[in-house]
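[RESIDUES AND BACKBONE]
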Amino acid sequence: MTQNRKKLISDLIQTAHEAGAKRLVNASSGNISVRYDENSFLISGSGTSLDKLKEKEISTCFINTVRHYEGVKPSMENHFHRAIYKNRTDVNAVLHFQSVYATTLACMPEPEYDLNFIPESTVYIKRVSVIPYLMPGSTKLSEAVGKALEKTDLFVLKNHGQIAVGYSLEDVLKKALVFEFACHILYLADKEIVRYSVIDIEELIKNYG
């Protein structure tokens, strides 16, 4: 269903600014999008800074048509946004971010992404998919993200950044913030961390998931 475009753009800008204020993105890193209707989504433009995103810097991209986009040039990562919206009808928002601690772990050899040590990550993240380094903006990266879609709502792109997907802009921002928080704890703990038991995990998801 087509949403109110003006309201959607306002919400997208507000979420982008909050992502910047929460230090999920730096300078022109990262990009954000939201589904507009069955065949299009709104996405931040190429080279834009999310913390200062303006309406004129938002592009409209199309999912299943020959026409690629209209308006300003979209972020170079629009391809994996398209793959996500095409393959996951439950997803209405996507945030690609490069927060400090999550990206630090993404640059380490073999970080452990079992985040079942605080309630928030167990309930909101559940599972993380790790994608090997592939050229940013490439078809190979989009294909890799597309193949991993059914497994998770949170992706780690090795030596690159992270992707969070969700049913709304509020949901996707929450997942990104929880993930950065968990990665911060994991980094400080330096692998010496106590995780929940299977019973604890099941109980948390049952009560709050």
